Amino acid sequence: MTYVDQTTPLISVLVPIYNVERYLEECLDSLRAQTFDSFEVLCINDGSTDGSAAIVQRYIDIDTRFKLINKPNSGYGASMNQGLDAARGAYIAILESDDLFMPQALEVLYQTLRAHNAQVAKANFTLYWSEPQKRTQSFDVVGTLANRTLCPSVEGHEFFYQKPSIWSALYSRTFLAENNIRFLETPGASYQDASFSFKAFAAAECVSFIADEILLYRQDNEASSVNSAGKVFCVCDEYAEMQRWLAKHPELESRLKKVLAHMKLNTYLWNYNRLSPNLREKFFPTMRAELQADFDEHNFDENNLGLVRTAELNALLFNPQRFSFAWRNGEPQPGKWNLLKHVYALGGLQLLIFLAGKKLKG
Length: 362
Hints:
Order of helices and strands: EHEHEHEEHEEEEHHEHHHHHHH
Oligomer: single chain
Shape: globular
Low-confidence stretches: 1-5
Number of strands: 10
CATH architecture of the largest domain: Alpha-Beta Complex
Strand content: 15-25%
Largest sheet: 10 strands, mixed
Distance between the termini: 46 Å
Number of domains: 3
CATH superfamily of the largest domain: Spore Coat Polysaccharide Biosynthesis Protein SpsA, Chain A
CATH topology of the largest domain: Spore Coat Polysaccharide Biosynthesis Protein SpsA, Chain A
CATH class of the largest domain: Alpha Beta
Structural class: alpha/beta
């Protein structure tokens, strides 16, 4: 691809950094290997105490596209917002400091976004393990929307229920600024991608979805938070931010209120499932109260939730003991027999017969 003057990069790549010296070189090497070269790399160092900043400096010394922003430790959201403020490119890409872009990642994202005059281009990615031996697994996040451009993007309701994965995408910087799409500045690194992703896909006039897998998403640096009391309610902060933002956009609120309630139900059940037993008890009253409020406002639709999710919601709201019993081992494992056992635990034989008669599906 033709070299473009780097004084005016087309893309600003935000790389949030906190104590990732083990993986950082591989991440930054993946940027230097890009087939698209009109970009700057903003490495936002969130008060790292290891050698991360020194590693970035080595890249700055050999490649003027790399920049280092040092800041006191204040969390992922604050780091990303500082990166947005410093960015000069017309487009924003995000690369987590332990992940890797495929060589054609930026080129594929840029060409797709420009070809369809979209505000966001979104691609698939690959799960990546480097230990105990290297292996990969495809992750299809765009599903049936692959190689399509939706205008308006809210027509693709099914995408809102997918993993946020903000880093396998490219965003118009002007679009983000005009719609005040920023990150919630809560402490640490806890799901701040959720509200950013929702706001971006809700506000975009057009989103292009790409079947290509453009990123390796590392799985062996996943720090478990099942026993972290500080992360119990982080998902609640994100959904409060989504609701606050949506309330300021009434034209979108009417179309997405039920979608957001469905998203919240899915996420809160996921959060409940991942927590240790004592933290589940702490989270349950808040989860139940918030979902009860959505239920009372008629924000849930059985046709969208599906039969099993509806049964889970009803048990959660109206028979908490049965709900806790049904979820004692987490979500049901794949297979119809496991699903039948889960439904039986939720509502007994009567519910099982009723749902089976309606062609029970997972």
